[in-house]
Fold BTB domain containing 19.
Amino acid sequence: MGPPGGPPGGAPAQVPPHSVQGDPATFRAALRGLLNCARFSDVRFLVGQDRREVLAHRCLLSSRCDYFRQLLSAENPVGGAPEEPVVLADVPPEAFLTVLEFLYTNSITLDRRTVLEVLISSLEYGLSELRELCVEFVVQNLDMELVCEALQVAVTFGLRQLREKCLNFIERHAQDVLRTPAFHELSPAALLAVLHSDHLAVDEVELVAATRHWARVSSAVLEQPMGQVAQAVVGELRLPLLSPSELSSLEEQNRVEPFIPMEQIAEAWKYHALSRGEATRGIQGRRRKGTAPREHHRFLELLPK
């Protein structure tokens, strides 16, 4: 017989479960206090070109990220504190510390100056949640200074959503974007995505001039002829949209600073010669959203919808 007031048959008394939950903000603050803190740290990174020292905790990094689990196991397969630091020369220290903040606290403080580096790091480290947070932040903060760099990252790493958002911004603000230094630093693949658009709010004369400037900058950086660096992109320039006088001027400039194949200019002259012929069809004869009207455009395809 069980004790008085107890359950029959002597079964142990059932104590209702009681859950105690602390303040999440206090918990995150405590974890944030461990960031780059020598207390209990057992792994040392040398980060960036200047090899800035960053201290961390092996157990936490390994439990939160497969990349670091594999990296730290390879660095020190027998356990214990590694004798040598882990060198991560390709990531800026500020971006790396932001990644650690996310791993330690599952929260993030993003800055427009470093968000693209954090985004690249999230891709390298396989942190999909951090990647989405970075993309969302970039999209919400797109402006003239950020959009071309963001497009470059999107094209390089195959981020389709970010690529489309950047292109939409560039299409609406093309005249201003073409004048930014970042535009002239785009890779051929990123510039190709821009030049392919029907919806750029800019006239073809300005687009040709901006592409020439881009080729000039790329030629100086790569120490290659302008025609060589521009080869992959100039086919997207719609030279038949230019008037005969504009095309003549382009031809003269191209003799001094060649970056468009003469065959492409000759094809543009053929458009004018044929007028209503089949040569006026296709992308080369299609006006962009910002194309200024010219007399011969009545023979070309309609404006894009």
Notes: The mean pLDDT is 86. Residues 204-222 form the longest helix (19 residues). Residues 186 and 249 are 26 Å apart (CA to CA). The longest strand covers residues 43-47.
